[in-house]
Amino acid sequence: MFAKKLCRRDLLKFSAIGLAGTVLAACQPKVVEKVVKETVVVEKKVEVEKEVTKVVEKEVPKEVTKVVEKVITEAPKPKEKVPAEVSIMMWGGELSDEELKQYNTDHAPYKLSRLDPDQVRYYAMLAAGNPPDIYRLQAPEVPGLLARGIPLDLTPYFEVSTVLRPDDLAPANNFYKGDSPLDIGKGKIWGMVKDWSPDCTIWVNKLLFQKAGLTPPPDDKPLYYDQVFELAQKLTKKEGDRVLVWGLGVEWGWVERFWEVWLEGIGNSLFSSDFTKFQFQGNEEAIKCAKWHFDLAKGNYTQNPLSPSPRGWIGPDFLAGQIAMCQYGFWFSGMVTGTANTPTGMEGENKGQAIMIPAPIWGEKGKRISTTITATGSIISRITKNPDAAWDAFQWYNGQEPAITRAKGGWGVPGLLSLYPLIPEYNEERKQVKRVLMGEMQYADHVVRFNPFL
Hints:
This protein is α+β, with helices and mostly antiparallel strands and 454 residues long. Helix content is 30%, strand content 13%. It folds into two domains: 86-197 and 376-425, D-Maltodextrin-Binding Protein, domain 2; 202-357, Periplasmic binding protein-like II (D-Maltodextrin-Binding Protein, domain 2), CATH 3.40.190.
């Protein structure tokens, strides 16, 4: 039971009652009372209003600052250019006099000069201590040059470049990466491609197929090499001992590269893992590869030493309609469709009859590979006297005006992913070629093993 609070009115009421009780007591008989003092403890629940100051511990969310340490490679402050002469080994069709003149105007006081590519001359100049600053080469040469310490490590330059960014490099540039001659494909960057192609694709002359009573192969599905051989037999046209039309054009200087691609597609190789042994004798699969080309030549189904190309190489033979199929990459489209350098393209009745089809597969269990086996590009000589000037010319040639011009011309796939949209498709021929090319790209990142000791 809770006590009631006393107000002023209640207090007056109780005072009146107490006074009346006193009067009544006086009227009673007198009684002697013994007063016994006793302390009685009464437990009574009383509600009391009380002001209390409480100290409350309030949980305040702690602010946590997450510190992420990010290492940023800052581009070095531009150095003041000092006059320097730079030389580059490149063909005139790959670097014109007009482009050289433009570079020397825009990049002064640097001065760039051109030499025709010559491997013997390069090594002679290298031995004399004065090699060309920029050297043109193909992928198979890279491991050997790296083993001899010839190229300059360009990784620091690539890491800070806004023109040649590492994340913009096309997969073919992996042939110019490596931490050792035996480990090519990733790591330090020693050079890059000027342009490249999936080199195992095949060009087909539809008119020659029609004349032979054959249907041209589909351009969205790869053939097997056995099928290619059979077609070469059927397409070859002879008059006595004279060959009028070869079924297939072969680039004989590349046959061992083709063999290595085929063998790697079935988990084999011409070389041991450390490249100290040539694995041919006793390697049945390698022997099959060699026999494929041998039988092709023996049957006169391709040009060979006993039945050579009348024009010196198979490119012009295909344009003239004397080869029904030709195993070249996308770069060959610059000749087939015609450009400023070769305005006629396919000749006569063969004009407009060429298509490109996917790279064939070696064996029914073989892996589909459509990689480059040339990857033509350049390096900077390690002993260059002007590395910064050499890099300036290297960067300009591979990522600026000359690279843009090459991409638009269709003489190869650009070395930079950002330039892919420039690949031409201005007519039906070009559209067909680009469609097949884009289909091959997903099989084009394979890095072929090239022996550094050859």
